[in-house]
Write a structure and sequence with these properties.
- The termini are far apart.
- This protein is mainly β.
- The strands form two sheets. Strands 1, 2, 3, 6, 7, 8 and 9 form a seven-stranded antiparallel sheet that branches. Strands 4-5 form a two-stranded antiparallel ribbon.
Length: 169
């Protein structure tokens, strides 16, 4: 079940959006004990879903994506994913890392022979059936009326805001 993503069947009028965020907030509170701590802190912060805050990923652009497998002798290699975004106001970068990834599904959009992702539209945190963090991200370009999405199942999430240094005259 999704709460604030477009798949929840709501339209974008204010009362429906408000109701969706209330359902999402209730879900987070009810599952606080099961949530990874950093993901819960991020999802319940007063700024993460507030587009006027420069740290909010809404409308940010993907700058880089990196997947790393750590070599481990005679064992499965743990995977981690790091994402770097240019903030919506272009005054800083957002770095998101998933230290240990269990599964992922990534979609991209082809426009004019170029693969792109567009703007970070909406995202939400949920728990998987296995008790892991699910972070689902919707990107702005729509293909056949549906937004592109990334679904990452991980142990937790690290978030970092890096403001750009501005030169003073």
């Amino acid at each position: 079940m999704v709460f604030i993503l477009s798949g929840d069947g709501r339209d974008n009028r204010f009362p429906a959006v408000r109701t969706a965020f209330e359902r999402y907030s209730n879900y987070l509170k009810q599952n606080e004990a099961a949530f990874p701590p950093r993901a819960y802190e991020l999802a319940t912060s007063d700024w993460f879903y507030y587009p006027n805050d420069h740290r909010c990923p809404h409308d940010a652009w993907l700058a880089s994506f990196q997947m790393t497998e750590t070599p481990v002798r005679k064992a499965l290699k743990p995977c981690s994913i790091s994402i770097r975004l240019l903030g919506a106001y272009h005054d800083g970068h957002i770095e998101i890392t998933y230290p240990r990834v269990f599964s992922y599904s990534l979609q991209a959009f082809m426009a004019g022979g170029v693969t792109c992702h567009g703007d970070w539209r909406y995202d939400e945190f949920r728990l998987s059936e296995r008790g892991h963090l699910i972070h689902e991200i919707e990107w702005a370009p729509q293909v056949q009326g549906k937004p592109l999405s990334w679904i990452i199942e991980a142990d937790d999430i690290d978030f970092r805001w890096i403001p750009m240094k501005t030169e003073r005259a």
